[in-house]
Amino acid sequence: MKKFSTIAAFLVGGLSVMTSLALAAPGEAATAQAQAIARSSQCAFLADAPDKHEVVSGDTLWGIAGQFIRNPWCWPQVWGMNREEIRNPHWIYPGQIIYFDRANQRLRLANATGSSGMEGGVPTVKLSPRSRVQGLGTNAIPSIPASAIEPFLSQPLIVEPSVLERTPRIVSASESRVNLGQGETAYVRGDLDGGTSFQVFRPGVPLKDPDNGSVIGYEAAFVGTVKLVREPDDTERSDVHTFSVVNTKEEMSIGDRLLPIPPTPILSYVPHPPVDEVNARVVSVYGGVSVAGQNQIIAINRGREHGLDLGTVLSLERYGQVMNDRTDNNRKIKLPDVHYGNVFIFRVFGTISYGLVMQVTDFVKVGDVARSPQ
């Protein structure tokens, strides 16, 4: 069976690769670079990878990548994407075909009907940036199953201590009510910072950093939304704002907090390893349970301040047990950490992030390691 040719520029993987490339012609260098790094890194193509894959509705970048390469987080290397292209990728759509050439270790994207461009008998299509509306172009395939994370994209879920201190709060309700329902009036104190529409949340369980025990955030229970009706008049000698309850997931109460409704989340991210070395720990499993499995949500103790962004993939590892070596006078030793899966970061806060558990062979537990893929 004929093997197809493709496009990909792998990242340079070492001095020996760079030396050999310096001696090659520009066109030969690109191919040599891809082949050398594919052989020497975890971004190698699978031996049983298909010759081609026709993109269909329901596909994800992660799923397609897993058909061709050992580690789906190598997707940017396979396509030669730089950091800007990772943040604003060339999307893939149903009906297009991904071709694979084992000899050259390359991929190419083409329309199912082909195009005028031909190289080695393979139809090609030049990708160009598309305008993004609400994150993705029409029918573009997502990075991971959207249904698994949509409820977690726009609700607060995690509130950091510094943010919690600044959030406005409900101080009273009309007719001295304790709880509030849709259409009722809520009185709020605090700096609205020009906002008019807010989510209402209830601070919940404190999230503690496994490394030092400090509180780095609070799980926030989303209870509904409110809209500003009236700001206090300067002549009233009052700092209380009047709000109307737009909708509720559960009854609002005195003491509940407000956060501005965020803009529609942009889903333009692709799976990629972090730029800088990351060594994090699992802080919690969403829902208050003790363990997580495939497609469940976990929080880790690293965030934007540590260089994480949307689409970052980290390796999940069981923290190696500390034990006594009975063969060496009971000397304390630590066993190696054991890799058992990956986590795909889809929402990033300052010092904490939410991730979707991917490809696990064991349960995720609080305290487990989440680090840069090795």
Automatic annotation (TrEMBL):
UniProt keyword Signal, yes or no: yes
Domain LysM: 51-100
Highest taxon of the lineage: Bacteria
Matches recorded under Pfam families: LysM
Keyword Signal tagged: yes
UniProt KW keywords: Signal
Signal sequence annotation: 1-24
PROSITE patterns noted in UniProt: LYSM (PS51782)
Gene3D superfamilies noted in UniProt: LysM domain
Name the UniProt record assigns to this protein: LysM peptidoglycan-binding domain-containing protein
Organism, scientific name: Undibacterium oligocarboniphilum
Source taxonomy: Bacteria, Pseudomonadati, Pseudomonadota, Betaproteobacteria, Burkholderiales
